[in-house]
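Researcher: I'd like a structural prediction for the single chain below. Treat it as a standalone chain; there are no partners to consider.
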Amino acid sequence: MGPAAIRTALLQGPDLVVSTDHKTVIRLTDEHAVVEAFCRLIEGLNVDASSGTPKLYKPAILSCILEAIDRGELAHQRG
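Model: Treating it as a single chain, here is the predicted structure.
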């Protein structure tokens, strides 16, 4: 199993996130820190535009996640 697979498996934990440089897994227990990490992740989100037109799958997934959080359907991260 390679480093990417290990990192992906670790990130299934409800209080674990990857650092902004994508090199370290960090445990966050403070709700404010979790929100800040999520916002940094959104700010760093990029969209594939190799075909000339941006592909909207990431924004669409993000929109669904935010709607589910707002409705209370994603109160906890589950694998």
